Amino acid sequence: MRITIALGLSFTLLCGTTHAQFIAPSVLASSGGSGTDSGVTLSWTLGEPATESLSNGTYSATQGTQQANPIRIRLNIDAFLQGPYDPSSGSMGDELRSNGYIPLTEPYIAMGYLHTGGGGETTSNDVLAVTGADAIVDWVVVELRSADDATMILESHSALLQRDGDIVATDGSSSIAFHTMPGNYHIAVLHRNHLAIMTLDPIALNTTPTDLDLTSDATMTYGTNARASVAGSVPAKALWCGDVTFDGDVKYTGADNDRDPILSAIGGSIPTATITGYRPEDVNLDGEVKYTGLNNDRDPILQVIGGSVPTLVREAQIP
Ligand SMILES: [Ca+2]
Ligand SMILES: [Ca+2]
Ligand SMILES: [Ca+2]
User: Which helix (H) or strand (E) is 7 found in, with range?
Assistant: First the structure.
């Protein structure tokens, strides 16, 4: 009799203990989710409970014990690069991608560009395997600049440019995202051998993606003739090509010009020689550096500065 009672008590205790272990851990958070890939599940949350965020436009602070770095601004930007833009189809060529030349890590840090808050972004071979209108043309940089002082870069990230002009995050499809507080900002777009552009007016930005079409004549940009007007069946505004030296201007002759590096790249003596790869001298981004002949990379530089006076210089319209 005493043995039976003891067994019953042990069973009850065991059940109670086992049952308690099935209460799943949980957390109260403003945002989060979970995902499973290859049998591994990862769940995440963004931020601890916080009562208030304060910002002076440059810095932000949030009350609470700890705050992750949440996404506060999303942007859908469209832009074209003059070099690979084909106005007969209204899209850009993706020969860098189809030839396997686009690096998985953004190229801008290595070129001396100083990121603010971003930099070192990477993508995947799966993203670069996408073909068609959403195929990747190249890496670009998107900057968020102060509405009060447009020379002040508040945050910058490397992003990917699709053939149809969409600038997307490194997953190849998402809107690009920033951690800066919602508000009004200038937006600048840079490319490694095209002239950078910036919005004339500050744009209101928040977590709902804001559309910004920089291929459209109706979207005002800072400065004078900041973009090339490409004529054709699908006319568009595009970033001027030809800044091989990535120094903010396009020069055909004289010190630090953008033409000599093309000749140097192909060997320096035989103008008909060519070289392939992911190179700044490849002005039209077709994967090949050519100094002369059909689709060469030198003629566009002369055209960008006006076509007739070789000493003219075109400067990026960006403060
Ligand atoms: Ca697209
Ligand atoms: Ca230059
Ligand atoms: Ca080329």
Answer: helix 2-20
- Please tell me the number of the ligand nearest to residue 286's CA: 3
Rg (CA), the chain: 26
**Whole-number Å distance between alpha carbons of 288 and 307:** 23
Token representation of residue 145: 């600049």
| Burial per residue of 228-241, b for 16 or more beta-carbon CB atoms within 10 angstroms, e otherwise | bebeeeeebbbbbb
CA–centroid distance, residue 37 to ligand 1 (Å): 26
How many distinct helices (H) and strands (E) make up the chain?
4, 21
Which uninterrupted H or E stretch holds 49? none
Q: State how far the Cα of 251 lies from the Cα of 313, in Å rounded to an integer.
A: 5
Distance 164 CA to ligand 3 centre (A): 20
Residue with tokens 């076509």: 307
Distance 48 CA to ligand 2 centre (A): 47
Please state, in angstroms and rounded to a whole number, the distance separating the CA atoms of residues 288 and 296. Answer: 9
Of residues 257, 235, 267, 237, the one with CA closest to residue 301? 257
Locate the domains of the chain by residue range.
Answer: 73-239, 249-315
- Å from CA of 284 to ligand 3 middle: 5
DSSP category for residue 75: E
Measured CA to CA, the distance from residue 214 to residue 236 in angstroms comes to: 9
Annotate 259-287 with b (16+ C-beta within 10 A) or e (fewer). bbbbbebbeeeeeeebeeebbbbbbbbbb
Residue 285 C-alpha to ligand 3 middle, in angstroms?
5
pLDDT at 134 over 70: yes
Residue bearing tokens 């403060």: 319
pTM: 0.81
Beta-ladder partners of 236: 230
Q: Are 247 and 274 in contact (CB under 8 A)?
A: no
Distance CA 117, CA 110 (A): 16
Quote the distance between the C-alpha of residue 189 and its chain's center. 8
pLDDT digits (tens, 9 = 90+) for 16-75: 444 444 555 455 555 666 777 776 667 666 655 556 666 665 666 666 655 567 888 999
